[in-house]
Amino acid sequence: MSEGILLPPAPRGALLDEATRVSRLREAIPQIEAAASGETDAVALQATLACLLWETFVQSNWCGFYRRVRPTELAVGPYQGTMGCLRIDFARGVCGACARTRAVQLVPDVHAFPGHIACDDRTRAELVVPVVAHGELRAVLDLDSPHLAGFGQAEADLLLPLVQRVFGGADVVW
Ligand code: SME
User: Which residue's C-alpha comes closest to atom 6 of ligand 1?
Assistant: First the structure.
């Protein structure tokens, strides 16, 4: 059982300065891993991360997962925020680019990203992290923010290994 995470209070929607965001994420990560520890169901893990990362990333208006449901198609999974698109082809958008390349996509201004899918027109920045298990792309973790440059490289650099540790275990059931 977990009681969620304890972080310094921060107003929902605010873009904190980068040092504060990174320190907040560093504080959250061990608590998120503790909450996920021992769970092997991929949906339970996705729901828990969506919830706790939403608490951590107060600058986000969307935080959650798209799952690979066909060879080149994603379907929305557990998330927090405004309504997301239901399906995304690998050929489209920031999530599709992440799924296709398996590389983290850090997009400070989505208007400058060809093919960005505007599920919520207020979104200005996006960070998408691949979820790879046993050599298979299983999902992507998508974070959106209405702030330009709402996410930084240091946050991307902390999120990728977190996702790898949580979902990379041999016993996770997809
Ligand atoms: N903007 C994303 C689509 C997903 S949502 O914004 C929730 C993209 O371009 O892939």
Answer: 119
- Residue in 91, 97, 125 with CA at minimum distance from that of residue 111: 125
| Ligand 1 and 31: CB distance under 6 A | no
Residue pair 82/63 in contact (Cβ under 8 Å)? The answer is no
Which amino acid belongs to residue 39? Answer: E
- Give phi and psi for 165, each to the nearest 5: -70, -40
Kindly state if the Cβ of 84 falls inside 6 Å of ligand 1: yes
The angle formed by the CA atoms of residues 97, 171 and 174, to the nearest 5 degrees, is 45
**Residue 151 carries which side chain, given as an amino acid letter?**
F
Alpha helices in 37-105 (DSSP H): 42-56, 93-101
pLDDT band, very low/low/confident/very high, at 1 (cuts 50, 70, 90): very low
How does pLDDT run across 96-145, given as a tens digit for each residue? 999 999 999 999 999 999 989 998 999 999 999 999 999 999 999 999 99
Is the entire prediction scored with pTM above 0.90?
yes
* Radius of gyration of the chain measured on its C-alpha atoms: 15
Angle ∠(71,72,74) on CA atoms, nearest 5: 105
Spatial separation of the C-alpha atoms in residues 86 and 42, rounded to whole Å: 19
CATH fold label, 18-167: Beta-Lactamase (3.30.450)
